[in-house]
Amino acid sequence: MGKIGIYGSSFDPVTNVHLWTASTVAHRCRLDKVIFLPCSGKRKDKAMKTSDLHRWNMLQLALEGNDKFLADDYEINQEAWNVYTYYTLEHFKKKYPNDEIYFIMGADLLVDIADGKWKYDQELVAGNKFIVMAREGIDMLRTISRSPLLRNHDDGSTFHLIDKGLAMEISSTYIRDEFSKGGEPRYLLPDACYEYIKKHSLYQ
Q1: Residues 3-200, CATH architecture
Q2: Which neighbouring-strand residues pair with 31?
Q3: 3-state SS class at 9
Q4: pLDDT score of 44
Q5: Which of 19, 164, 179, 191 could form a disulfide with 203 if both were Cys (CB 3.0 to 4.6 A apart)?
């Protein structure tokens, strides 16, 4: 039995922090694979700055040469109305029935679940395991303890909290802003992605 982490994001664009975070999580949690899962541009709750195709192509370039990292286009290919994390994790549990599946997320998303903002939150928390990365200003233990849903499923293995050293805040938004204003974010993302953005005049 292996251990697989599902790492969802817009990856608009994928950054070196995404890669470093995935590598650190894989090392600390002893994951055999990390699946990078770009979300669909059809989603109403997210405004993408470039197309699904460009984001997918950059992700492929970024993951080249790392056998532990995989990209999966499952959510990109879903209709917007049907994209819920609960369904996504059910899909991957069926796809990898002999492996343990973990959903990798930031502590800000843990807060959203605690505040009842996620669809199928009961089923999601009851049937899955989570690796939660620290975010500045968020107390992860307090977030779990204040939520009846989270604390009643906190059996010691449901939530794997990763704190020290993972609160880097260089974001895709920062990189997009640098490109749009004539800045130079070259060393914040993989070289191949930087060249791809330049070639296709993205984020201008």
Answers
A1: 3-Layer(aba) Sandwich (3.40)
A2: none
A3: strand
A4: 67
A5: 179
Interatomic CA distance for residues 99 and 113, integer angstroms: 25
Nearest Cα to Cα of residue 101 among 59, 76, 129: 129
Structural domain spans, the chain: 3-200
Determine what percent of the chain falls in helix, strand and coil, rounding each to the nearest 5. Answer: 45, 15, 40
Q: Are 98 and 125 in contact (CB under 8 A)?
A: no
- Average of per-residue pLDDT across 151-160: 94
Spatial strand order of the sheet with 3-9 comes to: 69-71, 33-38, 3-9, 100-106, 129-133, 159-162
- Look up residue 111 and give its two tokens: 């807060």
Mean of all residue pLDDT scores within the chain:
92
Q: Is the peptide bond before 148 cis (omega within 30 degrees of 0)?
A: no
Distance CA 202, CA 90 (A): 34
Please give the Cα distance from 43 to 25 (Å, whole number).
27
